[in-house]
UniProtKB/TrEMBL annotation:
MF term (GO), any: glycosyltransferase activity
Protein name per its UniProtKB record: Glycosyl transferase family 1
Domain (Glycosyl transferase family): residue spans on this chain: 163-340
Alphabetical list of Pfam families matching this protein: Glycos_transf_1 (PF00534)
CDD domains recorded: GT4_PimA-like
PANTHER family for the chain: GLYCOSYLTRANSFERASE WBBK-RELATED (PTHR46401:SF2)
InterPro entries: Glyco_trans_1
UniProt keywords, alphabetically: Transferase
Keyword Cell cycle in annotation: no
Length: 362
């Protein structure tokens, strides 16, 4: 049995950035020759049953060095405390601080805050997948020793784009990802702009695709489909989760990624877009903004921003920016050129795996 274990959730709806991160760093570690046992534990994390906790406690007792996905570790303070007291070296990988999830009641947020604070207090190492998440943990809990291991990205071919501008929302169809906000902004595009257009200027042509798993919040997903159906016929398609060749076709036809998340640890989909030379419009104040611009001290800092970051709750600002991008070919080219410049300087998954390994001292 491997002494190193990476405990991940077995039952989360996917695909998701967090699950992809876990899978890719584990694959890189094995390629490096690091023997790590992947343990997928069942349960409705971060709301486990007593039986789910017992399964986790059993696995924790079998290993001396354990890395836990934060959706599990931050929800199991007693189990982490017991394992640490027995001599296990516990590390927690925080993709998203539990109380940062949107749609929580005040009582739920408080319960998750208390749980996460207690759980992280038993951790030998705490690692976040973005500077945004690190700063959030510092503000919430006062943790100063939090490392960052940002995701990597695979190299990809440049996307040729569509004949008419194509927008892509790619992510879970949930309140936090905010596709309803995007649809509200798109609906405003059919309204007269706030300034006169040149005589005879045609309305910009565009289409949009909303792609992502819908199982996490079926009622919200139904509302998204209803709102999309109210758009002009054929403008917006809601297609559910996409993967493999279907996803690659989507990327090839995309001209702009739109990600109006209310909270986002990093937004791996942003760097996946940049890897294809696709710019992005993202929620300001979220980790997606970091993904778009790059580390202020990193190799991308000197490059022009390949898109823009806007308040995700300001639908008028999103509509105005989208209208400008759709109407101005020079702006579209400027953003695309910037995306291609960033493309050459993106991190790889080997960088991410090494950063995480260093942070948890494996």
């Amino acid at each position: 049995m491997a002494q190193l274990a990476f405990i991940v959730p077995a039952d989360l709806p996917g695909p998701s950035g967090g699950l992809t991160y876990n899978h890719r760093v584990l694959a890189q570690w094995r390629a490096m020759g690091l023997e790590v046992e992947e343990i997928a534990v069942p349960g409705a994390w971060p709301n486990p049953s007593p039986a789910d906790r017992q399964v986790l406690a059993h696995h924790l007792a079998q290993h001396r060095q354990v890395l836990l996905d934060g959706i599990i570790g931050s929800a199991a303070p007693q189990e982490l405390r017991t394992a640490a007291a027995s001599g296990a070296q516990i590390s927690v990988l925080v993709h998203l601080p539990l109380p940062a999830e949107s749609g929580l009641s005040p009582e739920e947020a408080q319960r998750l805050t208390l749980s996460e604070r207690a759980a992280l207090g038993s951790a030998h190492s705490i690692v976040c997948t973005s500077a945004w998440a690190r700063d959030d943990l510092r503000a919430r809990y006062g943790h100063d020793r939090v490392a960052v291991a940002e995701p990597g990205v695979d190299r990809a071919a440049l996307a040729p784009g569509g004949a008419a501008p194509r927008l892509l929302f790619l992510g879970a169809v949930t309140p936090r990802k905010n596709p309803l906000g995007l649809l509200g902004a798109l609906a405003q595009l059919s309204e007269p702009p706030g300034h006169p257009e040149p005589t005879g200027s045609p309305e910009p042509q565009w289409s949009a695709v909303i792609a992502g798993p819908e199982g996490q919040d079926p009622a919200y997903a139904a509302a998204v489909r209803a709102a999309a159906a109210e758009q002009p016929h054929g403008r917006v398609s809601v297609i559910g989760a996409a993967a493999g060749p279907q996803l690659e076709t989507l990327w090839a036809e995309t001209d702009l990624l739109v990600l109006p998340s209310l909270a986002e640890t990093y937004g791996m989909v942003v760097t996946e877009a940049l890897a294809r030379g696709i710019p992005a419009l993202v929620g300001a104040g979220t980790g997606a903004q970091d993904a778009l611009r790059g580390d202020p001290a990193g190799s991308r800092a000197e490059l022009p921003t390949p898109g823009a970051a806007l308040d995700p709750q300001d639908l008028r600002a999103w509509s105005t920016m989208l209208r400008a991008w759709l109407s101005d070919a020079s702006l579209r080219q400027q953003w695309r050129d910037a995306a291609q410049a960033h493309r050459a300087r993106l991190r790889t998954w080997s960088h991410a795996a090494q950063d995480l390994r260093t942070a948890i001292e494996w």
